[in-house]
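Lecture notes, unit on binding sites. The following record was shown on slide 14. It pairs a sequence with pyridoxal-5'-phosphate.
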Amino acid sequence: MIDLRSDTLTRPTDAMRAAMAAAEVGDDVFGEDPTVRVLEERVAGLFGHEAALFTPTGSMANVLAVRTLVGVGTEVLCESSAHIARAELGAHGAYTGLTMRTWTHPRGQIDLDAVRSLFAPDLGPYFVRTAAIAVENTHNFAGGAVLPLADLQALRAFADEVGVGIHLDGARIWNAHVATGTPLAAYGAIADVLAVCLSKGLGAPVGSLVVGRADVIAETRQWRKRMGGGMRQVGILAAAGLHALDHHLERLADDHAHARLIAEACGVDPAGVDTNIVVIPRPDAPGFVARAKDAGVLVSAVGPTAVRAVTHLDLSRADAEQAARVLAAL
Ligand SMILES: *Cc1c(COP(=O)(O)O)cnc(C)c1O
């Protein structure tokens, strides 16, 4: 089976497992895991921020990150198919007491006019006030779409003008970086706080980080413990992340090339395939998924008329060519 359902399906390579086995570890709740510290400092530095915090999942990283910008009864503005709105099972409302209002863009992009009109200033204790704006780069449900840096910078200027924070859900920020050549620090500069994942395209088995100011991350460390996310000899997992940053970052370009190859074979406009996700419009998506499975290719239906194929580390060039042939024939 060629599995294109997600880039989370990768299994640690032998070299990654060796790095994990050799990791120096300590009790990270005591702040004594040297490998976790190296990972946190390295990732903070990549984004030009002061500090970072290792978390088990991207969803926890998002909840912890957004929490630093908002309070109970305030709101976050985001795009309507954002992961924080659609795929975290209401975590932000449940844990943080915030509400969300959304704008909609078919490619998950920032619509600054919509953001301006949604923005709610502080009108006293009768109305919900906008406390933060959240963006997602690349945008998962918009097919791995990249948000252009200029749009992010314009949003930053607006956020500064009205005095609200920006959260960047950067689960796949690595893909945006490799696809456009935009430095990670340039993405870091537009956000007060970021969440990034090691377990998507980078191919680590587990792990995400919250990135931000040192005092904010120190407080977030307490909130992680409060949520049950304090972990002990977790350097074993941090080592996988460090290995992924060393060996799996630049090769994301291969995943992007494989996605374009599949898109072209299926008659999908490659201009709409920015990174490693291909959305194939089909009148009967569930039926198509079943027929693809019979032909040895796993893809997913993301709605009644859209099929999604995601390329990743465990997919060779030959696999991508075979998948392209199968999907095109269907
Ligand atoms: C996968 C993902 C996350 C985090 O998901 P977890 O499964 O909790 O690690 C967050 N945001 C986006 C855009 C994602 O694709």
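Take-home: The first strand starts at residue 2 and ends at 3.
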